[in-house]
Amino acid sequence: MDLACLEQKFSEPMNHLKASAIREILKFTADPSVISFAAGNPAPEAFPVEAVQEIATRILSENPIGAMQYSVTEGYVPLRENIKKVILSRDSILKEGDDLVIVSGAQQGIELTCKVLCNPGDTVLCEAPSFVGSLNSFKSYGGNLVGVELEEDGISLEKLEQALKTEKNVKFLYLIPNFQNPSGRTMSLEKRKAVLALAEQYDFMILEDNPYGALRFAGEDVPAIKSLDESGRVIYCGTFSKILAPGFRVGYVVAQPALLQKIIVCKQCSDVHTNIFSQMICSEFLEKYDYSVHIQKLREIYRHKSGLMLEGIREHFNPAVSYTEPQGGLFIWCTLPKGVDMMEFCSNAVKNRVAVVPGSAFMIRESDPTQSFRLNYSTPADEKIVEGIKLLGDMTKSL
Amino acid sequence: MDLACLEQKFSEPMNHLKASAIREILKFTADPSVISFAAGNPAPEAFPVEAVQEIATRILSENPIGAMQYSVTEGYVPLRENIKKVILSRDSILKEGDDLVIVSGAQQGIELTCKVLCNPGDTVLCEAPSFVGSLNSFKSYGGNLVGVELEEDGISLEKLEQALKTEKNVKFLYLIPNFQNPSGRTMSLEKRKAVLALAEQYDFMILEDNPYGALRFAGEDVPAIKSLDESGRVIYCGTFSKILAPGFRVGYVVAQPALLQKIIVCKQCSDVHTNIFSQMICSEFLEKYDYSVHIQKLREIYRHKSGLMLEGIREHFNPAVSYTEPQGGLFIWCTLPKGVDMMEFCSNAVKNRVAVVPGSAFMIRESDPTQSFRLNYSTPADEKIVEGIKLLGDMTKSL
């Protein structure tokens, strides 16, 4: 069977789905001489290595069969309870009548939400730009993905209402309200309330993705949209990827039970259940270690690293380049002046041995116009941040 | 938002997808006084606990960041190499030009294959009965699922060709050729060759699911369909669930690269990558421990347990009840005489504190007629096998 014959067999959405542009860029970063601001990995010093060593060893000694045997699709019961107790109670995420299931990273929660709600052609609204992994998930179900301009304080309400009036079968609005990926921006409380009111008015669901919420190192917490939701319209995704270990692929979805039931049935035929050993480790970490102290430590790490990067930008970047000053999370979003070829700038950066992600990777269609690129400060070592930003800064000066 | 309003929002396939009937039965088995022949879990004594303890502790001491950080979607490179070297080379599974990617259990390989190939309404052919988790996967993409009668030596070729002549857009045929779940039957070499020839003639793919292949305790190995495949029509799924630890959710897909590329893109927006810590454990297990010795041990365990169950059946069952004598795997398939109410028999069994799975759970539609039920011998302890089979036997005598 030749390739042309095989390609004819692929399902329709496969024609629109490409490997993420970030992955292509990350290939260059395998070269240790390239300074990478392109990843989104937690800082190595953010991993609670000793705690995980202690917990993993103890679990394998006390309950090895439990850590290796099949488990239930909903997730490890003590983990579900500990998430409710230690994480969700702080922010009133769990509304009366809601429940929580464990998924294999928030990515799976996002994918399954789309699978449960969307027929091919149904509309998914999202911030433009937004997280490419989620956008690809929506595309993989043949969704009609519609981007709505992102402003300094969150999605444009005007443009959102415009889209709601013109687009058909809007199933849900996808939002990353805190320290958004890629923009680093945080949605204001007013806008959170407004999108919830629009959800009621136009009858759609909201998928709230909050991977970075705990990593606030400046400013004041803004309530989760889920915490304001009185009618069960919000589906909330959380994750251990940024607070414990992304390699474990443990996340969770909070929603009303009737929706969770569908997610569970879909998860059952997707991966049966999430790795149980890692679920047990996450659970013990919440139960036996001081979560607040740990989060405080992470905030210090990212406050320091973002500060270092922003300092370099202020010192070395051409003032014509604008940039966000995030209050948390992992990313800074830089925008080049009009007339500059952003893709060429990013290519030249790699040639100069600094990798950044071109903003087009986060647009609904990669061809959508953008002058921006994304910088990550969590992954590189401090001296690499200083060195790389100086190099990028010199490039911006010759624009 | 009330429930009726929410239910209107669900995607079309959700209307046809129900939680597996097995799960409902397994609820009863939480009661320790119920003897469960309903599960499909490996025997507790089959887990290489000491090896996993040694490996996990070493990995977390030598490379903790590697075990906790984000990894690549294709899978941990040493694991991919070790699977090729230690497992696939034995059976000539990896054909020239093929490659392998890691997935979160074979279940994910099955789901992603369906996602990559099927538009809603496309036809998936499968053995009837077949594994309910896979059937639900196919249903979850709106596939037109068509069952083909399973005979003693595998799928009926006559019925298969009939279906190929009448069904439209047949994308693939799903097969579990070794010690099939639920029937325990093994497909003959002749039939393996014949379905491959039909795949050429009628231009469809074959999804070969082989979770139990290594667990042969009687008879001679039959070559995998993949090993006979010269034209890249076969997609092969393997797993560590039955040979190491199902709780780790580590499996793999072998196929031609153009198809794997699509699976990788879909996996990326499904769970990014499979739990890396467990991938590293699986890899080290293949590399540092004697795989042949381990498999030999598992075969002894299941030879013993299946023998015990078959002995009980011969001694206690009404001779009017027929049953398969598997040469490997985890299941025995019993068929009640015509006229007996199979569902009532299974309900009565639970009342007598023995759980079995009614055959209808494995039919394409649960309403499809069947007189069979599935017995599992891997999970219960030896004395429970003896006791439970005696109880079931007494029930069959009063039929």
Key terms:
homodimer; alpha/beta; Aspartate Aminotransferase, domain 1; Aspartate Aminotransferase, domain 2; 14 strands; 42% helix; 15% strand
Q: What secondary-structure arrangement, pairings included, does this model have?
A:
Two copies of one chain form a homodimer.
Chain A (H helix, E strand, L loop, with lengths): L2 H5 L13 H8 L6 E2 L12 H14 L1 H5 L8 H11 L11 E5 L2 H12 L5 E6 L3 H9 L3 E8 L2 E2 L1 H10 L3 E6 L13 H14 L2 E5 L15 H4 L5 E6 L11 E5 L1 H12 L7 H13 L2 H26 L5 E2 L7 E5 L6 H10 L2 E2 L1 E2 L13 E5 L5 H16 L2
Parallel strand pairs in A: 1-12, 3-4, 3-6, 6-7, 7-8
Antiparallel strand pairs in A: 2-9, 4-5, 8-9, 10-11, 11-14, 13-14
Notes on the structure:
- 2 copies of one chain form a homodimer.
- The first copy, chain A, has 15 helices and 14 strands.
- The first copy, chain A, is globular, with a radius of gyration of 21 Å.
- Chain A folds into 2 domains: 3-47 and 293-397, Aspartate Aminotransferase, domain 1 (Alpha-Beta Complex), CATH 3.90.1150; 62-288, Aspartate Aminotransferase, domain 2.
- Chain A has 399 residues and is of the alpha/beta class.
- Chain A has an 8-stranded mixed beta sheet, sandwiched between helices. Chain A has a 4-stranded antiparallel beta sheet with strand order 10-11-14-13. Chain A has a two-stranded parallel sheet with strand order 1-12.
- Chain A has helices at 3-7, 21-28, 49-62, 64-68, 77-87, 106-117, 132-140, 157-166, 189-202, 225-228, 257-268, 276-288, 291-316, 342-351, 382-397; strands spanning 35-36, 99-103, 123-128, 144-151, 154-155, 170-175, 205-209, 234-239, 251-255, 322-323, 331-335, 354-355, 357-358, 372-376.
- Helices cover 42% and strands 15% of the residues of chain A.
- The longest helix of chain A has 26 residues, at 291-316.
- Chains A and B meet through helix 1, helix 3, helix 4, helix 6 and helix 7 of A and helix 1, helix 3, helix 4, helix 6 and helix 7 of B.
